[in-house]
Fold these 3 entries.
Entry 1:
Amino acid sequence: MTSDATDTIDTLIARYVAGNLPTPARVLVASHLELKPRSRAFARGLEVVAGEELEHERPEPLSDAKSRLAAILGSQPPAPIELPPRRAGAVFPRALRDFVGFDADETPWRTRMPGFREHELGDIEGFHVSLFWIRPGRRIPTHTHGGVELSLVLDGAFTDVHGRYGRGDISIADETVEHRPTAEMDRPCIGMAITDAPLRLTGSIPRRLMDIIGG
């Protein structure tokens, strides 16, 4: 990946730590952090810095502090969050599995074109969210974007003009990027994609037709 993409991923992680990502992007980044120890270390570092900044904030006096403390002490603790056990051979990270409620082998895929399957999760907080499955060696039609597309590889890998993306990697594309993602030959490429605008096919009409039918 290019340094620009890395910088943007770092920004995504910073926004995740700050708690101001929309739900689909939060799930995507949380899944990335589960799969990439290096990114987890970066996120932990940001959390430490944020904690140190809070320690230097000037405290503000509370009105009616005694009543507020009594209300806190008298409240019921939140119910513990029950996380599902880690499943042997699971493809989806826990954050994504919790979000969609199933794993890759249970996904109700629909074939969109030869060698390309998709499961649409719909529009969530301004993003269109979907899961995708690409046959080994399949080229996705050349396209660009009307906005931003974030793609997280969950299994397998694909390549495009920016390089190779394997399990846990995030691809970031926008209207400045024209690419033709191609799944590697050894296994299907499975991933999660979120977009804030439709993609647009590019290239000649014959090239588009060949790409759609898998030529």
Entry 2:
Amino acid sequence: MATVQLTVNGESHRPDIDVRRSLLDLLRETLDLTGTKKGCNQGACGACTILLNGQRVLSCLTLAAMHDGAEIVTIEGLARNEELHPLQAAFIKHDGFQCGYCTPGQIMSGVGCIAEGHVHSAEEIRFWMSGNICRCGAYPAIVAAIAEAAGLPTP
């Protein structure tokens, strides 16, 4: 067992955890933040994408014990005082989801993609978002939403 200090969506937490526990399981099972989805649990689908110290990571492959002192943002932490994050609003406007299961990971990865500066074209967005799988095939709408949130003309 280990105790970690984490700031999640602006709130401080000090859970005692099994050192083998992933950030995904800590978020979902201990902190009850179920917006981050468990898809493949092998790092292949991107459904569990979060921001860890400002960088997008696959939380299913990330051990919580290795990130004492970290700042984490999940899909629940993007909106501010009832105002959606611009990418969340763009996803709604462009219907960037169908079943919605991949949407939290897509949005978190899209926020990371924008922050990293990988949004100069639709092709670049598609390349840098390629680690996120949408089984419904909403990719054109997802790219359009990210482009709009980044201030680009929508494809």
Entry 3:
Amino acid sequence: MLIGMIKQLVTIAAATLAALVAAAVSASAHPHVWVTMRSEVVYGPNGTITGIRHAWTFDDMFSAFATQGIDSKQRGVFTREELMPLAKTNIESLKDFEYFTLAKVNGKKAELGDPPGNYYLEFKDQILTLHFTLPLKAPVKAQSVEFEIYDPSYFVDFSFEKQNPVALVGAPAACKLVVARPEELDAALAAQLSQLGPDTKLDPSQFLGAQFANRILVKCT
């Protein structure tokens, strides 16, 4: 089964992760999964933006439960090939949630395609990192491009790396990058969320929504 069978708002990994949610019930708080991100905004040789490349590093508890039961040649060490079935399940599950990524080109929503087959999971220092690229369905030259990454239900907490969280790859020299992190969760809302179990369905418009999005803005002159 998937996490989505326990909490329909988020399906982010394979059956092994159901144990993670079960363990989190005792804490009875949102969020239940923490992701630290590095991203690259990718441009083609003709100056068109082609997509965004993500590297999502999961918290240690998520990583430990996700790798339980996976066969490996060396105990506690997993190769990309050994992790590929889990990576495939992650990508297929994330599709239902539009990969928690919203793209806007010149102020209008842009359609994202599905990741190509070069996605993979990396296991290093007992931590899992999911690597994948989201292409724009139609590469385009744009003066303004914005990406928002967040989970409206706050079941998954996304945050950028502290140092060099976002890079431009192949962008024209006139393009400038701005990274905007969400505001800190205020104490009252944090306390309210801490009382909720993992099966609670939050109203994104009332509780969280895009106000807690991580934003990447690129402007080209």
